[in-house]
Write a structure and sequence with these properties.
The chain is an alpha/beta fold. It contains four helices and eight strands. The protein has helices spanning about 5-15, 70-90, 110-120, 155-165, and strands spanning about 20-30, 30-45, 50-70, 95-110, 125, 135, 140-145, 150.
Amino acid sequence: MRYSRSEIIDILLKSYIAYYDITDYGSKREPLRALCEYYEHAEKYMVSRKISLWSADREEFIYLFDVPHLTLGAFENCKKTAYEDGMERLHIGPGHMYSYITPIIVCDTCDGDAIKTLKKCHIYKSFQFSLHGWMDFHAAAVIGDSDRIESNRAGRTTAKILKKVLYSKK
């Protein structure tokens, strides 16, 4: 089932709205179409909240990019935008468990070298030797003309979710 870029982005935003805080930029920050933010805090305490045994914070930032034709330069631009903005949004410190920065690039067509670079993209950072958690970079591309979804190694679960949301028969 073939969708246009705008239909794919609308489907994704509708599926994310239940779990994420969404900022839709429209055409203000092209090619960035929307930012989806997810925050989770878990804590175990004893007797009262003043005596905390442990806490864990999880964050995810999904950047939806709308690109007609994905080239190597366009991919590098999207990667840089997502990484720099995502790193500024992280809340690193005691209790931080992990954060995911996830650019999802929705395009009609793409160059082979752009997909090859996307698949090889690997960005991982640990903070204070993982005592303050880590950050992983999940990248994915939805290619509208062929119904393909490509991702880097860390983004395989993102690709599975995208396939389920976009192409499962309802």
